[in-house]
Amino acid sequence: MKILIAEDEIALQESIVKFLQRDGHVCEVATDFTEANYKVSLYEYDIVVLDINLVNGSGIDVLRTIKQRKAKTGVIIISANNSLDNKLEGLDLGADDYITKPFHLTELNARIKAVIRRGRFNGSSDIIFNEIRINTEARQTYINNIKIQLTKKEYELLIYFIVNKNRALSKNVIAEHLWGDSIDLSDNFDFIYVHINNLRKKMTKVAANYIKTVYGIGYRFTEE
Amino acid sequence: MMISLVVLYFLTNYLINKETEEDLHTITYQLERLIENNLTVNSIEPLIGITETTESQTNKIKDTLIFDPSQNEVELFRELTTYKNINSKNYKITARTLVVESQDILIAIFLSYIGILLFSFLIQFFVNKKSSEQIWKPFVNNLETLKKFSLHSNQKLHFEKTDVLEFTELAEELESLTNKVKSDYENLKQFTEDVSHELQTPLAIIQAKIGNLIDEDSINEKQFQLLSDVQQNILRITLLNKKLALLTKIENKQFKSLKQINITKKLKKSIVTFQEQTLHNIEVGELTDIEIYLDIMLSKIIIDNLLTNAIKYTLEGGTIKVSTTTNAIVIANSGQEAIKHPEKLYDRFYRESTTKKSLGLGLAIVKKICDAHNFKINYSFIEGFHIFKIQFKN
Fold this sequence. Notes:
The structure holds two protein chains of two kinds. Chain A is an alpha/beta fold. Chain A contains nine helices and 14 strands. In chain A, 41% of the residues lie in helices and 25% in strands. In chain A, strand 6, helix 4 and strand 7 form a beta-alpha-beta unit. In chain B, the strands form three sheets. A five-stranded mixed beta sheet of chain B has the order 6-8-9-11-10. Chain B has seven helices and eleven strands. Chain B is of the alpha+beta class. Helices cover 52% and strands 20% of the residues of chain B. At the A-B interface, helix 1, helix 7 and helix 8 of A face helix 3, helix 4, helix 5 and helix 6 of B.
């Protein structure tokens, strides 16, 4: 996928690029409004990761430019502002998602992949990992083509694992993904273990084995 | 007043007496002239009496009481008796005149005095009232303007200026004061927003860098543990930041979209979410629907904070109980002993125990929301349970 990162904080921009490149995405960057607006009006991107507060301009205007071109570009807004108004304005103008600073790169990655899946790229909305197949439209999970029943959290957990495969995910990163704003029990994420255990039990032995414990404080979804 | 009344009385009395005497002298003189001219003058009792007499005395003047048949009462007369030799005859000429009784004078004076007083008092009263209304009007108006003063309205206050120097000064001072208060408040608000806003970006960078580090395959267990701890504390700062901003927002009364909501429904939803996040058992008791007027976000915050609090302070193997009555939510969690300083329970950053990694803001926020909406929050410790009860209506 071709992704534009419009972010004026170079350090953050570099981190995002480094992270996404590892998944094989082609990343371009824009460090201010002018550059961002110029690039989106000239080139076509699959995804634009757009900071609202750019130097010398607003990301909202870049979003307008993208929408004027009627491009298929998916847009994920990054904002330091947690205000609801801002969020609604962005989504109203056709942004696909909204993420507030600070965020985990794995979270951004999951959001990007969700936007890609949402079908605008003629691609499949299925997530496939070996024998596991998740139909995200019907919200159904199959292992070896046999349907398995997952709770909402187990389902979200499995998707998060697969889109961030081969990456170590600490418990609090997983908790923040699953419960977002209502996460407040910052001293104890042991309950994550319960959900992961339940998920493992519902999967086949081989599939369950993909979820590996990392040093007792995190997990990694991997084939190795 | 009294003195002037007395003086006036004596003065009038004196003047009347003098005038009466002069009058009597004139009459006597006239009578003498008549007698001199050999005209017969008859006595007209009781006013004039002329008799020939042999005795000769000095003139004397005196008061005398004579029955007046026309009035059918005894009247006071002033009497001048003159002995005069006219045409070698001795005459005793008595002239009398009715005296205005001093009591009458007194009453007259008193009545007219009262009348004047009353009249001037009334005039004064109305004139004063009118003029003070006129003078105080801007003051009263300014007071009304001041009462309507709100930090949250964008309108500048305008105070009326008048000719009265003090009021004008007051109005000017009030204007500059309210403007100052407003701008200070704006600055403070801006500062709070800026801080919470500006912190986000460096936090995001730290978060991302840690993400990059963890993403490298070469990290070992110890490093992963450390990075995970850093992540947790970034989350803590983020939450702290968010909650402080929220608390400020509540204090500034920036949540204005009141809606009728079924808070019991919200409670049920939150219980499901929280049960997923804890190993403790949440026992759900009787849930009666409660309809209240509240901002949706705030209703969720009240419930979530109380549940979070209950979950955090429940010991392993403990229980959390949730129920509602027709007007109250009750959230209880098992504990060993009552809180030592219940009066500090709702203070910011007050923590009963230091072992728990709590932000110490949850209950402060709940309390603020309750205060702002006249809900009553109450803590008690009964039979091994910390019980928080929020009463919505009386």
